[in-house]
Amino acid sequence: MATGEPYAVEALQVSKRFGAQRALDGVTLRVRRGEVYGILGPNGAGKTTLIRSLVGLIVPDGGTVAVLGRRMPSLDILARVGYMTQQAALYPDLSAAENVRFFAEIYGADGGVREALEFVDLWDRRDSVVSNLSGGMRTRCSLACALVHKPDLLLLDEPTVGVDPQLRVQLWDRFQRMAREGAAILVSSHVMDEAERCDRLGLIRFGRLLAEGTVAELKRSAGVERLEDAFLKLSESSAA
Amino acid sequence: MSRRRVAAITRRLLQQFRRDRRTLALLFFAPLVILALLGYLLRGGGSVPTMGVANLDTGPLGGVVASQLERSNTVSATNMSQADAETKLHNGDLAGYVVLPPDFSAQAQQARVVAPDVRLEGSQPGLSGSILQAVSQSFTALASTAGVHFEPRVTYLYGGPNFDTLDYFGAAFVGLVVFFLVFVITAVAFLRERGQGTLERLMASPLRRPEIVLGYMLGFTVLALIQSAEVLAFSLLVLHVHNSGNVALIFILEALMAIAAVNLGIFLSMFARTEFQAVQFIPLVIVPQILLAGIIFPVSTEPRLLQVLSHVLPLTYAVEGMRNIMIKGADLGWSSLQLDFGVVLGFAVLVILAGATTLRRRIA
Ligand SMILES: Nc1ncnc2c1ncn2[C@@H]1O[C@H](COP(=O)(O)OP(=O)(O)O)[C@@H](O)[C@H]1O
Ligand SMILES: [Mg+2]
Questions:
Q1: For A155, nearest residue in chain B (alpha carbons)
Q2: Confidence band (pLDDT; 50, 70, 90) for A239?
């Protein structure tokens, strides 16, 4: 942070309970612009809850959340954030292009519909009604909706579920390119091999951030060769 | 056919309902409410149509007929002057009156014919029918003993002899059809937005809550206005529903109801989790209103207690407004129509505010 620029995401000691269920338990997390940050953890670890608290959909019980230098919730900041929900949230009766255009307008973006649809390889299917698209295509359309306004911070909740391996590789290349161009990207995943492509990783389990660092740092600190093993080892040692 | 598989489906269904207490409550509660309401409406000692008797007869027979009418239990008849009766007819206090002319007894004895003037308010066919029936009954004693012919001269303040049940219901339904369809469609569309996750997306966007409400309102209002125009045109041009009023005025009242319906849909959808639950508002909110708004049973003949309820329901005023315009040819100079418009407008404003505030609170 040599320029003194604020973090894209700065979550401090964020906690959230649902009844007796601790979904988040004092999570502290910082994401800079220009990096792809992966949140890795099994189902129910608290990934979605963390992301929802970043866009103000959830008000944390404790801790603070700042996005692009501003305390959340802030509508002005939300215009610079892209959010892709875990389940593809689209209007099934609209075409792919109509969906993307709708979100472009909501976010005050001029154009960019074609670029976004090409980014996810859906330009050819732009006139298809969403209910006629395959599951993977819907996921991609949902992604296009999240990035059509060229956000400074992109929050992606398990974006590659159901996307075939070839396109998945392509998407990750593009996430990295967007980061190089200055965006901050926060991606959640429960798939280990994807995590290898993140600049930094946070391992989350039972609502707690167990470890954080680059893939190499995590492997080194666990003293293992594979990321899976690192994850297992680190969660065992924190449970102990 | 496997009994086990069929049983599995049945069990799953019942299990599902056990979790959905609300649907279950509705299933067993709503029919009782509706039937109780209907029972009370029909057997709760509702009042009978009121009519006037102006007895100008110089002979004895007029008095006989008048007292016969006053004793009738199908109408509530009161003696009054003809001028009084005409005023009360215009005010809506009487459903009709009968005039027994000065030469009533003389005519009956000499010409063997009785020809009373029966004047009916005419906007409610059911009430007109009751009065005509009561009047003719009061003459039957006379007719059978003296063998006189009964030839009433019937005139109408509104409508006329050709005015039928469709004319009466049509006026109310023009507004109602639009109101209920728009309400259901808005509520379901709004819940679908929540179910498919797009509402979550909108909430994470820079959209402000009032923008969402206003956008929804405008979108559905466009649809509702087109529907209103269509329903109105069909009723007037194809069904030839009686209309003595200004078409623009009917359309404005319809449009007000449509706008209220959109916002009522948004507001009530806040109290439902699923589209399924939204549909449940129909027996709970809509059917009682149909029973009580004077659409089928005139409010003036309801039991007193229900009349109070009817006068609280905004729909009562909407229905009355429609009838005021279409049947009576009312314009905005009429104080009764001003009241109808005022209540419907006030209701629309109220649900707009309610929709906007609950939406804000619920989503936050
Ligand atoms: N709205 C909610 N109501 C109740 N419990 C919830 C809610 N959202 C999440 N949870 C619980 O919080 C925990 C974390 O959920 P989530 O953040 O969705 O996990 P992940 O996205 O990592 O799979 C889970 O145990 C889940 O059941
Ligand atoms: Mg999740």
A1: B204
A2: low
